[in-house]
């Protein structure tokens, strides 16, 4: 499968795009081949009171590659029990690649964020993981939740990993 691929560096709203020392831009699309796609979507309601620097696993996507590049896409939307900040981290084989912090302005107010990252990998088995935690200093009754079952049109967490040439 061949697709046009582009992303952009976003500011504000907790979104950013990055990748292994290079940025891909709308003004310079290029052709790429997608060799395989794996994904993990949250299919249960979850809540965390875990505080940084101890993170809990939210999503995991194992992939076996021929070597080359992995394009990793993570999106999340959720709610908090108070005025809290949540952090979501993207890891490849346990190594931190990128993260996004999301502020929630009050109980029942939702917010969202995303991470797009491209990284080169060696041939073999790899694991892409999303972890989450509350950021220290958070005010309010600290809990953060993502509830795709009870709020399917409002909340989600998704991870897509593509091996690309």
CATH topology: Jelly Rolls
Distance separating the two termini: 11 Å
The CATH architecture comes to Sandwich
Structural class: mainly beta
The first-level CATH class is given as Mainly Beta
The number of helical segments is: 0
Can you walk me through this structure?
The chain has a single domain (2-164), classed as Jelly Rolls. It starts with a strand and ends with a strand. The chain is mainly β. It is elongated and about 45 Å long. The protein has no helices and twelve strands. Residues 1-27 have low confidence and may be disordered.
Please summarize what this structure is.
The protein is 0% helix and 61% strand. The protein has 165 residues and is an all-beta fold.
Ordered list of secondary-structure elements with their pairings:
Blueprint: E1 2-5, E2 15-18, E3 30-41, E4 46-48, E5 56-65, E6 68-80, E7 84-92, E8 95-104, E9 110-121, E10 124-134, E11 144-146, E12 156-164
Parallel strand pairs: 2-9
Antiparallel strand pairs: 1-3, 3-12, 4-11, 5-10, 6-9, 6-11, 6-12, 7-8, 7-10
Defining key terms:
165 residues; mainly beta; Jelly Rolls; eight-stranded mixed beta sheet; four-stranded antiparallel beta sheet; 61% strand
């Amino acid at each position: 499968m061949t697709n046009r691929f582009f992303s952009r560096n976003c500011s504000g709203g907790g979104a950013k795009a990055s990748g292994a020392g290079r940025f891909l831009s709308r003004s310079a699309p290029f052709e790429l081949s997608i060799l395989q796609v794996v994904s993990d979507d949250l299919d249960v309601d979850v809540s965390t009171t875990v505080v940084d620097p101890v993170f809990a696993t939210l999503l995991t996507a194992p992939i076996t590659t021929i070597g080359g590049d992995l394009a990793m896409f993570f999106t999340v939307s959720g709610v908090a029990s108070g005025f809290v900040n949540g952090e979501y981290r993207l890891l490849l084989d346990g190594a931190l690649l990128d993260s996004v912090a999301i502020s929630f302005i009050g109980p029942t107010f939702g917010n969202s964020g995303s991470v797009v990252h491209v990284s080169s990998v060696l041939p073999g088995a790899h694991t892409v993981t999303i972890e989450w935690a509350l950021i220290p200093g958070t005010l309010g009754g600290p809990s953060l939740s993502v509830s795709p079952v009870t709020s399917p049109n409002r909340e989600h967490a998704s991870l897509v990993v593509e091996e690309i040439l």
